[in-house]
Amino acid sequence: MLKQRIITALILAPLVIAGIFLLPFSFFVIALAAITLIGFWEWTQFVDAKSRIVAMVVPAMTLGLSLVVIPSDVTALSTLTESHYSILFMGGIWWLIASTLAITYPSSVKLWSTSSWLKYFFGLLTLIPFFWSILMLRAVNYAENPYHGAKLVLLVCFLVWAADTGAYFSGKRFGKTKMAPAVSPNKTIEGLVGGALLAILITWGGATLMDIPFTSLSNLFIIAIITVIASVLGDLVESMFKRVSGIKDSGNILPGHGGILDRIDSLTAALPVFALLYLWIL
């Protein structure tokens, strides 16, 4: 399984990087919308919907409307970011709530597990801010440097991948203290610390090599730490929904990795949180 995961990751990583940097903006938006829609399709397994196709109507209409209102010129999008901060705030608030639900699982289950509407709404809160945060980061300083926003998106990907890798190996070697055993028995506090340390190092190195400005080194560390924590909790939240639904993987589209949600679960939390911190708070 580890070998299969590595092979798939080695194929996916160059494709992701090429898509972020080389796709024309309009095609980039379409590709991102397609990934988000696949994520919604996999999320419908958590909803107990009578028809998964009917459950896709609202997400499809929401993303379809987004494709209509998003300017084809990324420079024009960069002037709209102020009006879209509410989406990032919505995502940030959702992840505070979702993290609380995951940490307090299973006692929190009774608050939402019997409501298909709540679980459906949770999917929207997870994937719509994810979609918009990538677009908002991609548009940063585009007029001055067309690749600046692409480097920001890639930096978050590097941060999450480093956190996952560091947590896996440090957890294997030093893991003793379970972080949320009822949700994910293999995750440990030691793994979290190891993942955070590697992610901070990779974020600092990546920002330096790609010439990504931060207001200060301390702010870079703060953003990295908070984003790492968000990414880990994002993984836990999806694990919680899968556990309640009796599902091992959200899909089988990616050999060794499961579904799209299994691959982007950490990013769905990390990207809105990073975007909110980088674009506004810090």
TrEMBL record:
<dbReference type="Pfam" id="PF01148">
    <property type="entry name" value="CTP_transf_1"/>
</dbReference>
<dbReference type="GO" id="GO:0016024">
    <property type="term" value="P:CDP-diacylglycerol biosynthetic process"/>
</dbReference>
<keyword id="KW-1003">Cell membrane</keyword>
<keyword id="KW-0444">Lipid biosynthesis</keyword>
<feature type="transmembrane region" description="Helical">
    <location>
        <begin position="53"/>
        <end position="72"/>
    </location>
</feature>
<comment type="pathway">
    <text>Lipid metabolism.</text>
</comment>
<feature type="transmembrane region" description="Helical">
    <location>
        <begin position="260"/>
        <end position="281"/>
    </location>
</feature>
<dbReference type="GO" id="GO:0005886">
    <property type="term" value="C:plasma membrane"/>
</dbReference>
<keyword id="KW-0808">Transferase</keyword>
<feature type="transmembrane region" description="Helical">
    <location>
        <begin position="192"/>
        <end position="214"/>
    </location>
</feature>
<keyword id="KW-0812">Transmembrane</keyword>
<keyword id="KW-1208">Phospholipid metabolism</keyword>
<keyword id="KW-0472">Membrane</keyword>
<comment type="similarity">
    <text>Belongs to the CDS family.</text>
</comment>
<feature type="transmembrane region" description="Helical">
    <location>
        <begin position="117"/>
        <end position="140"/>
    </location>
</feature>
<protein>
    <recommendedName>
        <fullName>Phosphatidate cytidylyltransferase</fullName>
        <ecNumber>2.7.7.41</ecNumber>
    </recommendedName>
</protein>
<keyword id="KW-0548">Nucleotidyltransferase</keyword>
<keyword id="KW-0594">Phospholipid biosynthesis</keyword>
<dbReference type="GO" id="GO:0004605">
    <property type="term" value="F:phosphatidate cytidylyltransferase activity"/>
</dbReference>
<feature type="transmembrane region" description="Helical">
    <location>
        <begin position="152"/>
        <end position="171"/>
    </location>
</feature>
<keyword id="KW-1133">Transmembrane helix</keyword>
<feature type="transmembrane region" description="Helical">
    <location>
        <begin position="12"/>
        <end position="41"/>
    </location>
</feature>
<feature type="transmembrane region" description="Helical">
    <location>
        <begin position="220"/>
        <end position="239"/>
    </location>
</feature>
<dbReference type="InterPro" id="IPR000374">
    <property type="entry name" value="PC_trans"/>
</dbReference>
<feature type="transmembrane region" description="Helical">
    <location>
        <begin position="84"/>
        <end position="105"/>
    </location>
</feature>
<comment type="pathway">
    <text>Phospholipid metabolism; CDP-diacylglycerol biosynthesis; CDP-diacylglycerol from sn-glycerol 3-phosphate: step 3/3.</text>
</comment>
<keyword id="KW-0443">Lipid metabolism</keyword>
